[in-house]
Amino acid sequence: MTRGAAWTVHLSVIAAGTTGVVYGWMRYFCEPDPEAFTIQNHALEDELQAAHIVLVPLLVFACGLLWRTHVWGRIRANYQPRRRTGMVLAFALLPMVLSGYMIQAGASPFWHDLWIWMHGTTSTLWLLTYAVHQLSSPGENDATPPRFDNKV
Ligand code: HEM
Ligand code: HEM
To answer: Is the CB of residue 48 less than 8 Å from the CB of residue 15?
Structure first.
């Protein structure tokens, strides 16, 4: 992976992660100001929501950039270093992205709440796993190039 690709992924995770976490904190852990005559829990809630919606496609793009060689190529090649956290990242990506968009598209309150729960759990799991994936000490095989051909 080039330095540019690695930093594209890191920055997109920081952008999506911080806006998501701060927005969630405002929505679920802040109390509305009783004198402000508003249904918002925090004055910047709408701005954070907008920032999250605008920035998250960068993360989808960044993961797309890695998918063919770093992710799917390594899964198919049975590549072992950091495999466990890599698999969690790969398989939690779809429900995280899908549930995020379904929060906006979901029709009934039941489905809306279900998508919010799914998005909250998958995105928290994804962020924590991403940190472990980055911070795990390099395995002795980390330096070994993966053995898969580029046609996968
Ligand atoms: C990286 C970690 C992420 C975290 C911590 C996070 C967190 C959150 C939270 C807390 C909400 C508010 C849920 C609610 O309405 O109560 C939310 C909404 C949303 N997220 Fe994420 N998210 C993350 C990644 C993503 C990704 C990758 C996508 C899609 C590509 C995405 C798309 C959305 C969308 C579209 C909403 C709906 C906004 C709304 O209408 O309120 N999120 N996210
Ligand atoms: C969506 C899934 C994944 C994402 C977003 C992801 C992201 C990343 C990023 C950004 C790095 C840092 C690269 C650098 O600084 O050069 C990295 C390193 C690494 N990842 Fe992943 N990864 C994923 C899946 C996987 C899978 C499935 C495996 C193995 C089966 C894996 C194995 C590794 C290893 C061994 C490293 C250490 C450096 C290297 O060999 O490139 N990753 N990953």
So the answer is: no
